[in-house]
Amino acid sequence: MKLVLASNNPGKLREIRALLPPGPQPEIDFLTIGDQIEALTHDVHRVRGSTLVPAGTEVRGFVFDLKAGKGGEVEIADSVEDLGEMRRDYRRAALDEGWLAGAWLEQFTLWFDEAREADEVVEPNAMIFATAGGDGRPSARTVLLKAIDERGFVLYTNLDSRKGREAGENPRGCLLFPWHPLERQVIVAGAIEPVDAADADAYFASRPYGARIGALASPQSQPIADRAVLEAAQAELEARYPPEDEVPRPGRWSGLRVVPETVEFWQGRPNRLHDRLRYRREGDAWTVERLAP
After folding, report:
1. Is 92 inside a domain boundary?
2. Does the global pTM surpass 0.85?
3. Is 272 a catalytic residue?
């Protein structure tokens, strides 16, 4: 038998063994992943698929709370056919109308600061940006938030990319901040508008040298023969614009601002009865409403 263990401290092997049932001690494949059941499931599949594990070896998952001195087996989905068995209950926090800030920007800033301070959130400014072209076909990708104020949320891109083209054809979009470790999401929907050229110039000039060269080298979203095309373009541009020289902003590289019409703050709760509070613009005013989960 092979046990796959999850613990917050791999140095506590002796304590964990003491929590195991009496009798012959099994082989242990130690995984340090905290108590995140989704991550445990992923690693169990990795162990099952490893050539180091003999065929037919039983693989089980356990989570241990060393402070409480308790351990227990967790149910692990055997394959993608058992996705219905994968679930996690959210109990970290709640969200009440009385706790909300007076404006969406203030509330977003509060949550963003908490996400930035949380070690578990790797890139707090990462957001999923969804658009649709004139034909209505949607697309989505992960981008980075680079500016925010009362006007909205700003990202930068090549305007000839798919998202840039779709924003031009159908200037409406949606953003989602997936702060999973905090059991939170923020969902923004609204119109898309271009940022001022001066703002785009200032941000482009602030980027690292390699990122500025990359913006010139890449025909974003366009088919290319192979990676050598990019590397050749990069080398040519580095020779043309050495690090001590100014790298010009590409004419079709700029910023897009999502001007919010709704900003929803989603907090996971037990039994899928999540808290969803949404700021919604009505003319020049904003109202807050609770949405059923």
Report:
1. no
2. no
3. yes
